[in-house]
Design brief:
Elements: H1 10-25, H2 34-40, H3 42-52, H4 57-66, H5 71-83, E1 100-105, H6 138-151, H7 167-172, H8 201-209, H9 213-224, E2 233-247, E3 253-270, E4 280-289, H10 293-306, H11 317-323, H12 326-334, H13 341-364
Antiparallel strand pairs: 1-2, 2-3, 3-4
Amino acid sequence: MGYVAIKGGEDAIAQSIRLVEYYRVRGRTAPVSIGQIQGQFRLLLDKIMGEASLYAPEHAALVLKQNEGDVFESAFMLRAYRATLQRRYTAETLVTREMFIRRRLSSAFREIPGGQILGPTRDYSQRLLDGRLATETLGHIEDFLAQFEAAAPGRPTVPVTTLPKVIDLLQAQGLLREVDDDASRRVVDVTREAVKFPAPRSAALQMLARAETGGLMALAYSAQRGFGSTHATVGELRVGEVPVRVRDARGRIRVVGRIRLTEAEMISRLRVQRRDESPALSLGYGLCFGQNETKAIAMGILDRAMRSGGDAPCQSQEFVLYHTEGIESYGFTNHLKLPHYVTFQSSLSNLRQAIERKDRKRGQLGFGAAVVNTTSSPS
């Protein structure tokens, strides 16, 4: 990689790695446990697991601690770890209608079957700094939990059941139109197959689920502001746990656990292509690991925008899917820190030669030649 040009070579690299660890622990503060990170940084871990495409909370907490809170580096490292794992099973299709719901809302309807469930969210908070957290102790946490549990309602008198989908209301009235063709239904595994454009919807949704949240939000925001034909409404947003099933060697379906997911179904007006065509609504879909509502909503907006056609960046599959891939973007951007001595010196040499040719031409035409320092700098 050209590191031989660095004074000290491999020894210098090893020392650099030791310095990273030194800077992490030089404050001599009490080590943060993996359990503490899992318990108090769940939203951050959800983001890392989503971008790494590996649902492993303990590993996400470990890699976050190892990288001093650097989300990009943590997702990069966790995805690299994922690549070393043996794939033993392929899960059956997740059924989100079975979700044990923690949070559920619709901005399209005030009243929905089963009711709106606000659940855990900061959407309605004032975003003020809470100075009490600076002196928080375990005793404070125990006091809060005791008060919360005392005020919580008792066990429900009716069994907990799954809740119907809000979009069922629109489908029953014939207002929601399916716009996919057979080719878009082909299932592609983007971790094993090279993506070719136009990509089927399964590949696009997988890449969006692995994409960097900020990148998705930026492009989805551009669609909402008019750089695209999509202005969506949240038909339904769900956060909760969904069972994961696999088929064993004897062909039996087994539940191996539950994972927390966020699902967003975004409703937008379908552009009518022909005069005799009836207007309708269409659906954009987003599904990602953990509680990451911003990402799921942005996925739903971009899913619909990429299938609407147009010249805006948010409507181009290749632009959206390549430029929101956080790990690729992070790697390419940071590779610029690696040695580029040969290519840069080659560019300098070409530049100097071009200037000399220009000066000679100006001199032949009778103009005063510009004074240019063409002395090569040490490489």
